[in-house]
Every structure is written in structure tokens, then in C-alpha cells.
Write a structure and sequence with these properties.
Rieske Iron-sulfur Protein, 4-stranded antiparallel beta sheet
């Protein structure tokens, strides 16, 4: 195991998330009930940065298509929501584009997120970069 410091506890207040990078790893840190969890910060559906989404309890909601993942396990708990572009029904070209986009996005698989072991030493958050 190679734990490396990625942040300080004060940088990830309870109920919040933070994006960090170490080497090639893009990591989402989430503070749930005072405990820090670490997972890939890239959505398992369309690769969006999850730390730009919303944290609800142990669930992170992707800002792009609302896929949901449990930050404690990395498991996909809700598939993406495919929605039309607002107002698309009023513009024929936009409506056609929106429908085409949904057809392209719908078959894209959603994968679970890799997770990382975390330990806190004093105020330092350390993550095992595998």
C-alpha cells in the first residue's frame, strides 16, 4: 500500500466533496458524517467530473446525466436520466438533435467507480493510490 496525502480535513467539510489529483488518479473525496471516502472522480457513464455534482448522504449525483453512485462502495445505484433539451419541442432542428442524442447516450453502459482506501492521520487525508 502506498498512502499519500491528498488533502487536509478542513478542505472537505462534512457533507461536501473535493476533487484532487495525484499522478494519473482523479479522486473524489467525500465527507459523510465526518468520515472521508475516496472514489474515482469520473462518472462511470459519460466520464463527467462527479465532484461538480451533488452529494446526498452517501450518494453522489453526476452533474451531466444524474447517474448516482454510492461513495462508500463505488456502486452505481441509479442509471442516468435521459432528458430532452429544455425548449427543444419549439425548435424542430433542436428537437431532432435532442432525440438523436438520447439514442446515442441510452446504450452507453454505466460502470461502478473504483474506490480507494483512506486513512486520516491528524488533519491529513491519505489515500492509497493503487
Amino acid at each position: 500500500m502506498s498512502f499519500v496525502e491528498v488533502a487536509k480535513m478542513e478542505e472537505v467539510p462534512e457533507g461536501s466533496m473535493k476533487h484532487v489529483e495525484k499522478g494519473d488518479a482523479e479522486i473524489l473525496l467525500a465527507n459523510v458524517g465526518g468520515k472521508i471516502y475516496a472514489a474515482s472522480d469520473r462518472c462511470g457513464h459519460m466520464n463527467a467530473r462527479l465532484s461538480m455534482g451533488k452529494l446526498q448522504g452517501t450518494t453522489v449525483i453526476c452533474p451531466l446525466h444524474a447517474s448516482q453512485f454510492d461513495v462508500t462502495t463505488g456502486k452505481n445505484v441509479k442509471e442516468p436520466a435521459l432528458t430532452s433539451i429544455p425548449g427543444a419541442e419549439k425548435v424542430p432542428e433542436l428537437k431532432k438533435y435532442s432525440e438523436c442524442l438520447d439514442k446515442i447516450i441510452a446504450p452507453v453502459k454505466t460502470y461502478d467507480l473504483p474506490t480507494f482506501d483512506v486513512k486520516v492521520e491528524g488533519e491529513s487525508i491519505l489515500v492509497d493510490i493503487k
